[in-house]
Here is the input.
Amino acid sequence: MQKHTHDWKKEDIASGLPTQRHWPQKELPKFLLEHQTPSTMFGLFFDDDVLNVLVQQTTLYAQRDKGHHTFQTNAYELCTLISILLISGYNAVPRRTMYWEQSADVHNKAISAAMSRNRFDELMRCLHISDNLHLDSSDRFA
Here is the structure.
């Protein structure tokens, strides 16, 4: 049996990519050059049209599919829910319910003051983006 030996080298492995990449110079849109508040940046992604669809579909799903016939929500409440989810992305705790606990190490006053834990849980159960009865069966993401 023949023993195989390796020749080790002390150098970086070439990536196969060009060493210098030139990105095309693009002029930034005017609104990105101006000072933006967090809420205006949030509004770029969640404008009135998106929020209205979320309100309509969440309400429809809760009332028709979940049997919560008196369920109602609004754009402000869903903005609050999304904001809590964004906060939870960088201020993580083992369980979401811990934001509402009174322990100093996990309690988040901004979250607990913005929405009750029970309402947050109810909205999370009902949050919906599209009507289940009108999904394209050929679309795997539907």
